[in-house]
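Next up, sample data.

:::
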Amino acid sequence: MNARAAVLERVGADRPYAASRPLSIEDVELDEPEAGELLVRIEAAGVCHSDLSVVDGTRPRPVPMVLGHEAAGVVEAVGSDVDDVTVGDHVVLAFVPACGECEACSAGRPALWGPAAIANGEGRLLGGGRRLHRRGESLNHHLGVSGFAERAVVARGSAVVIDADVPHEIAALLGCATLTGAGAVFNTAAVQRGESVAVFGLGGVGLAAIMGAVAAGASPVIAVDPAAAKRRLALELGATAAFEPDEAVDAVREETSGGVGFAFEAAGHPRVLQAAYAATRRGGTTVSMGLPDPALELRLPAVTLVAEARTLVGSYMGSSVPQRDVPRFVDHWRAGRLPVERLHSATVRLEDVNEAMDALAEGDVVRQIVLPSWRAA
């Protein structure tokens, strides 16, 4: 079958992407789903900084590739060996497939499953090979999802079935921004009521962490970002204070009499992680959620880890178990505790995805939602 899709032809193109057009919108061919796979009609896909990091070359991935890893849709076909998903089910797609049986899954850390990481890095599906083609050429999958398209073939372990009444635009944002940001608060750090939190970097992941901290009952909740509009949004979402990066460390330490118990870094840069660490109190925990350029290194005063009993921890996909956490986050959304819709900055057509990358690179938006042609018309 055929589907329109955004194909990344090359990495490191010059900006503006609206002119250089690294993503071409064209018809691609999809194979039927094989054993353990699903065919999903994509209804909405979020534009995440991790997508931009592939476009600009910060996160190397094999090309040509159909981009997009944060998406939701409706199941159109089911491969053999799948008996718990049916045609017509609504699903959220997670960017790390899980098997549910391995040591990592049994430990509640499916994002660390080795075979999934290898498949994602090689641009193939978990079952091996690629189901995307263009004029006889195989195309790579982006993190097992490739959501900037009208349809996608995914592993069963990449899909979480949700209630059909959840709007697709909300559902899409549960697959990365909410899993990663709110998940880091609930799962990685297990923030409790009354504990102090600061979040450095207010993109979709950082603002989801703000929402998670507020839902957990943390106080104070402090937001840090250079963009005034994002600081205002954080305050509207329940943050108690918001600061620009230049003043943040001193302001946070003054606001909390020595530093927060938990600092979350969502910018993907060592300089920001250093600031988050510096804003954490003795005995506190710093959680890194952003994905920096692999060539960058982090420098910290090593003695503080012991002499101040500090903890520095990484959080991939929010230490989430998608099959458990996506339905839980839906419940939080229904109750008003996670107003995920506030992350939605703009809606764009699939044909305008290059322009969407420009807006994200400029820092003008939180989450743009890409709609396929039949929904954008």
Observations:
- Residues 2-177+320-376 form a domain with the Quinone Oxidoreductase; Chain A, domain 1 fold (CATH 3.90.180.10).
- The chain has two domains: 2-177+320-376, 190-314.
- The chain has a mean pLDDT of 96.
